[in-house]
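Box S1 | Example of a co-folding query
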Amino acid sequence: MLVAKEHADYAQAFQGEDDPRLDEVSRAVKRFGYQQDALIEVLHIAQHAFGYLDEKLLTYIARQMKLPLGWVYGVASFYNFFSFKPPAAHNCVVCTGTACYVEGAQEILQALEAEFGVKPGQTTADGRFSVTDFRCPGSCGLAPVLVVDGELLGRETAASVIARIHAQLAGEPTPSQETSA
Ligand code: FES
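Box S1 (continued) | Returned holo structure for FE2/S2 (inorganic) cluster
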């Protein structure tokens, strides 16, 4: 009963009506049999559904799984693939694996910080652009590898990345879109 009430309270925080994303999280918790060792899977499903993990959502998960909130927060903050802020409208993910590092990933990250004032894990003050990093997705032959707004890019330079992101922010076609037009 208590869980049902919390579900309703939490759903109310989302526009005053039941939120199907919350049902998805709730179903996942049930599917894993309320097992505490399924916490990472549940957090993944929650982040996929909501885009990020805010305190209310973490509290909801903690109560459903009968875990202390501090424990849930600790696990979520240990892994850098969990985010506690709403996703930015535009995002650049830079691979920092060895091959990409050798081929200039660090210079790209430095250029992004100099141009937009954000390091990996940060979002610009206007919420429009964020930078994250990740480990080798296995495309080392294209190093340095990045993903800009979901598009995998290889062999970019710091200058070409900055130009591309300015174009994305301005809503202009990117170089690859111009080529394919
Ligand atoms: S090290 Fe970057 S794709 Fe492999």
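Residues 7-78 form one domain. The chain has nine helices and five strands.
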